[in-house]
Amino acid sequence: MSTGVEGNTGNAEPPAGQASPAELAARPARHRELAEGALLRGDGLVAGYVPGVDILTGCNFFLREGEIVGIIGPNGAGKSTLLKAMFGLLPVRGGTVALRDSDITAAKAHVLVTKGVGYVPQRNNVFPSLSIEENMQMGVYLRPKTFATRFEVVCSLFPLLGQRRKTKTGSLSGGERQMVAMGRALMMEPSVLLLDEPSAGLSPMLQDEVFVRIKKINAAGVSVIMVEQNARRCLQVCDRGYVLDQGRNAYTDTGSALLSDPKVVDLYLGTLAGSGETH
Prior knowledge:
- This protein is α/β, with parallel strands linked by helices.
- It has a domain at 16-116 and 190-272: Rossmann fold (3-Layer(aba) Sandwich).
- It has eleven helices and ten strands.
- Strands 6-7-8-3-9-10 form a six-stranded mixed β-sheet, sandwiched between helices. Strands 2-1-4-5 form a four-stranded antiparallel β-sheet.
- Helix 4 (132-139) runs parallel beside helix 7.
- The longest helix is centred in the last third of the chain and has 16 residues, at 204-219.
- The relative contact order is 0.19.
């Protein structure tokens, strides 16, 4: 059963709307203790798109070195908003984001790229009129001299990119374009990779291929946070998972524990797995 306490088992932590005042008061301190020394963390994040309307309403997360962390939840829960807040694409109205204990709450996306954070959005994540090679060059526009070395490394993870380097990206399949998008994000040698719905719109076979590639990226030394609409497959792949609901943490535990938690299965997995919902 999931606990809301990372890596442990026990009774599931109730969603914020069902928790007692004492339970709610204890959560920030427990999160801070567990997140100590994390590679990337967010504490009490509040963010939104429209003035006065918050999508994230006190969200906590952390990513340890070498982990794959999955973020799932219903449509409109704030999953993609969380990634954008982490990556400096959306102003954080409350709370903090830290990378290796350095405050990056107000850092812009181009600065975070140089600090080792990569991001692959769900939509418009390649330059369709450019070749694969040119897309990879765009990935190192801040460090053009590293292109040859980094492209070789990326091609070891995605051989197709080297084999078809002169092919226009717009002519590729959805799965192939996703590989281009992830490959381009890896060109700057990130230590953290943020993936927004990497399997969205793909066939089951191509979804499996994408998840295999994500595991390979992680094995190569990149820590990964991914938002996913294919909730079951995401939890099968990730080390830990967060279930967001109404902009806050609902459940948190290992991927396997969340998969076996009856409440999580009943409330979320039955409607989310393979649903293709976006937000």
